[in-house]
Design a protein that fits this description.
The protein is of the alpha+beta class and 464 residues long. The protein has helices spanning 9-19, 23-30, 34-41, 49-59, 70-82, 94-103, 105-126, 143-153, 159-170, 176-186, 217-232, 234-244, 249-268, 271-280, 285-292, 296-303, and strands at residues 190-194, 200-203, 208-212, 317-321, 327-332, 361-366, 372-379, 395-401, 423-424, 449-450, 462-463. 34% of the residues are buried.
Length: 464
């Protein structure tokens, strides 16, 4: 089999800009000619082995970043956006989308932002919502989607925040709760418990942090650390937000809470210790939850963030789904794409987790691009804690490419070598290429339909 050629022009340009090098100086440090570097940066030539070694030796660059998931994510997002009926004519070939994602990623993201703005405006008009007649209506991405995409394209790993949380945990001497309370006390914050109201409430006037006794101990610990991040790590969070350049104050506020959440999870489960525990237990989530005093959802989410350069864990995807099938959380260090618009594939095992509470569901799955995954799913319903308070029902999904399955205890005795054992799943019905799927809810937007009133198969139409 011929070796896979590595084209990483955008990454080379990004690194050169980061260190402030001219093309000529950069070429000299890499030991290549200026024309050769120019061709690599424009993806006219693959990155050679000599250049890869020079990147590591001269700049300490983690060469695994050359194969980051940004290109695959952009291609998947563009394919889904281009399936919108607003785009007339034939869909651009996959090769063109890959060229755009690799050679002009900023342009690809701008296209996605434009399509998102159009879609949101169209939905507002269609539902006769408040967009009509409002002076402050504007074409801008949803703050939630803007923040979601920020974490999505960072591989859900924020290096500065992760290291800060690890340093905080290293000084806790095994008592992370005590360290959090001491840190808050140093800032004049008093922690109290109460029976009613929100999970966490902080009063900036009285400097009182109230935690609900109806929450689990893991949730209370997490909320303590989140408040530590907001108070003790404010400068770091603000500096990170400055670099992200969010388009609205609302997005910035949402992202700040997201970064504080990130700090809390990373402090509860510090990177190096957590990675070692994951490898030792073969990613047994229940053993790890017990060891770190965390919930299963917190452990699964943390596993999806282990992408530190030079010390990466298995690239996982992590999702949380509500009973309606809506993805309420999604993070991925893999090439697996999640539906940006609409529901996820009904064949995915995460939708069945509500039917088997307290049990792990295992699945071998294959996406239309031929990539095979090992998938885990389980319900993580959260009782209200008292009569009359509704239970919040969720299911979580965690998975990785099947080549990593041997490192997971859950994959033991699975028939990973048998093609027939893999369930064909897609991103969403609207762009799925599998014409014969009996679970298809809507026809793919890029296909022509043929309806024969004299014949009925699995679907009430045929795809051409």
């Amino acid at each position: 089999m011929a070796p896979h050629k590595l084209y990483a022009g955008a990454k080379l340009r990004e690194l050169r800009g980061r260190i402030g090098c001219t093309q000529k100086a950069f070429a000299e440090k890499l030991g290549v000619s200026l024309p050769y570097l120019n061709q690599m940066e424009n993806n006219n030539r693959p990155v050679s082995t000599t250049v890869v070694l020079a990147l590591a030796q001269e700049f300490g660059f983690d060469v695994t970043e050359l194969q980051s998931g940004d290109e695959a994510r952009l291609v998947g997002d563009m394919r889904e956006a281009l399936a919108d009926p607003i785009f007339g004519g034939p869909t651009p070939p996959l090769a063109d989308l890959r060229l755009a994602a690799s050679n002009a990623p900023a342009l690809a993201r701008a296209f996605l932002e434009l399509h998102t703005a159009y879609r949101q405006t169209h939905e507002r008009l269609a539902s006769l919502d408040e967009a009509l007649g409002r002076e402050d209506s504007q074409l801008s991405p949803s703050p939630w989607e803007e923040v979601r995409d920020f974490f999505h394209y960072c591989d859900n790993y924020i290096d500065a925040v992760d290291h800060a949380a690890e340093r905080f945990a290293s000084k806790a001497d095994g008592d992370i709760d005590g360290a959090a309370r001491r840190a808050l006390a140093e800032s004049g914050v008093r922690v109290v418990n109460y029976d009613d109201g929100a999970i966490r409430h902080y009063d900036p006037q009285t400097h009182v942090l109230s935690l609900s006794t109806k929450s689990t101990h893991a949730t209370q610990r997490f909320q303590l650390l989140l408040q530590v991040a907001l108070i003790k790590q404010d400068k770091l969070l603000e500096a990170t937000l400055d670099l992200a350049r969010f388009q609205s104050p609302q997005a910035r506020s949402i992202a700040k809470v997201g970064l504080a959440n990130y700090f809390a999870g990373a402090a509860m489960m510090p990177y190096r210790v957590f990675l070692a525990a994951a490898q030792e237990t073969r990613h047994d989530l229940e053993r790890m939850a017990d060891r770190f005093g965390a919930s299963l959802e917190q452990v699964a989410h943390r596993l999806s963030t282990l992408q530190r350069p030079g010390a990466k864990g298995i690239p996982f995807f992590f999702v949380r789904v509500d009973p309606a099938g809506t993805i309420t959380k999604r993070h991925s260090a893999t090439t697996l794409q999640f539906a940006r618009f609409g529901g996820a594939c009904p064949l995915w095992n995460v939708h069945s987790a509500f039917e088997t509470p307290g049990r792990w569901l295992r699945q071998l799955a294959q996406t239309p691009d031929g990539v095979r995954y090992f998938c885990l799913a389980r319900d993580v319903s959260k009782p209200g804690g008292a009569w009359g308070i509704p239970t919040r029902r969720y299911a979580i999904g965690l998975g990785c490419e099947v080549k990593h399955a041997s490192a997971l205890v859950y994959a033991d005795h699975m028939m990973v070598e048998h093609a027939a054992a893999f369930v064909p799943i897609g991103i969403s019905c609207r762009i799925c290429e599998r014409n014969a799927c009996p679970h298809r809810s809507v026809p793919p937007l890029a296909s022509q339909l043929r309806v024969d009133p004299n014949e009925r198969g699995m679907l009430p139409y045929q795809l051409e």
